[in-house]
Amino acid sequence: MEITTWHLEQTSPDDLSAAKPPAVPVTVTRSELVSPELNRYLYTAVGGDWFWIDRLGWTWEQWIEWLDRPGVETWVAYAQGTPCGYFELDGAVDGDVELAYFGLMSSFVGKGVGGHLLTVALRQAWALAERWPGKTTTRRVTVHTCTTDGPAALKNYQARGFRVFRTEVEQAELPAETPGPWPGAAKK
Prior knowledge:
The chain is of the alpha+beta class and 188 residues long. The chain is built from five helices and seven strands.
């Protein structure tokens, strides 16, 4: 399968074009304790329909090693107390923050939550150094998305002020089906 990957960036907090709040109230909370169980749950619940497979084989220790680095943060979105999405910031490189993972659980897609959550994610990315003493002020925020991600992903990133700075096209072999949050489960 041919996969196109778009690498996007913002180089100033002024690049952010905020989305309107969703119709359903959404709260977004930083998970301040490192929890491989939480991150693996979010990763599979959000990415299972989009071929997020690179971390599926990670051990508990690999998750700890990734998450327990200065500048790495997990933020969880809740709609009426129910987890509805998340984002993971990787600010391990001073001055650069990568929006490493971002997405919604499938039952919340198309309800106006994505633009709002991305707005929150970008505000937190630009303010990351304020939460990590000794970190350099954020100068650049990056993200990448590809043709196997949700159909609205690229448009949402661009609508929030991201600009494409590199595009790559490659051939990749993917499983016949997405792993899904529950492998083999039928969609409603």
